[in-house]
Amino acid sequence: MGVRRSFRFLLRPTARQAAALAACLEDHRQLYNAALEHRRTAYAKAGVTVGYGEQSGELKHIRGDDPDGQGRWSFSSQQATLRRLDNAFAAFFRRVRDGRTPGFPRFKGQGRFDTVQWPKDGDGCRWDSQPAHPTATYVRLQGIGHVRVHQHRAVKGRVKTIAVKREGRRWYVVLSCDDVPAQPLPATGAVAGIDLGVASLVTTSGGEHVANPRHLAATAERLARAQRDLARKKRGSRRRRKAVARVAAAHAKVRRQRLDGAHKAALALVRAYDMIAHEDLRIAGMTRSASGTIEAPGRNVAAKAGLNRSILDAGWGVFLTILAYKAESAGRELIAVNPANTSRTCARCGHCAKDNRLTQAEFRCVACGHAAHADVNAAANILRAGLALRQASEAA
């Protein structure tokens, strides 16, 4: 059974191709903003709701009126940009229905729109467009040409969509592939619960700790210097553009380091265990600001901000996403359990009390005296809950 996977490669465009890529991205950004303005104006002036169908139908006229601008690019890629706006509105209305902070779709400024997608390989784009080339791989993009790709691993499955993404001064191509063959690993007979933390990224129920490298903290001083340098530059100047690029490059390096560490940690777990239980964390809620309002200001705001930074630096969401797809490909079982009271409950007797956890790292049950590392004790509770869920699903 095949699965869906993404493959990301660095592009090596010529100077002319890089300028064309930037122009493509800018025109798609303007199309997005124009479509958003159309929707806002139609509703404000006439109470009319404009959807994707109407705006997609107008693309032919837009391209015809601007042959050297919007008319240069793939029709299907422009439809994907309009569909992106439609998805933003759908998410907005969904949040309204759920009673959450809605967040109305916003106009995209320069630097806030970094991706263009082609929904189908062969429609305005072509992966491996020069298969006879003996040493290099190319992707063809309408209006840009055959762009060289730094392909560092084989692409498996059937290429479905192609996207181009800009990160700082670098360009990447992202392939979404269907029917990628699964690669099941031999059974080990071992199971584990894992607790995610800040001191250690991962702690297993067997007592193993995976260190949290704290990539953002490690580069904080260099990043702060780059941001101070940026703040001194005049808006619109060439020097400011260079300073922006330096800040973006520093953040991009942290993202790559975090992603690499998450891949290695997830792969080690998938190779070692047949079943892995983890907490079903709501990271967005956990990292919500504690500042409150003017009428009701929050408490311990600075401490909460520091904790939020540490959680985001650890990259729990990235790690869990990577763990999920590696487990699926390897034929491993991944179970998400309710995180409530896993850190306060004794793994030996089941007694739950706030006083059980003496410090961040020390756990001692006030009922039975069981002592253990707090994260190991929590991981054992997570494993027990995961095994119970598996048993219940098998019995149903």
UniProtKB/TrEMBL annotation:
Domain Transposase putative helix-turn-helix: 1-45
GO molecular function terms listed in the Swiss-Prot or TrEMBL record: DNA binding; metal ion binding
InterPro entries assigned to the protein according to its UniProt record, in alphabetical order: Cas12f1-like_TNB (IPR010095), RNA-guided_DNA_endo/Transpos (IPR051399), Transposase (IPR001959), Transposase_put_HTH (IPR021027)
Domain of life: Bacteria
Domain Probable transposase IS891/IS1136/IS1341 stretches: 183-289
Cas12f1-like TNB domain: residues covered: 316-382
Keywords, in A-Z order: DNA recombination, DNA-binding, Metal-binding, Transposition, Zinc
Any single Pfam family the record assigns to this protein: OrfB_IS605
Biological process, per Gene Ontology: DNA recombination; transposition
Keyword Metal-binding in annotation: yes
UniProt record similarity statement: In the N-terminal section; belongs to the transposase 2 family. In the C-terminal section; belongs to the transposase 35 family.
Protein name in the entry: IS200/IS605 family element transposase accessory protein TnpB
Species name: Nonomuraea phyllanthi
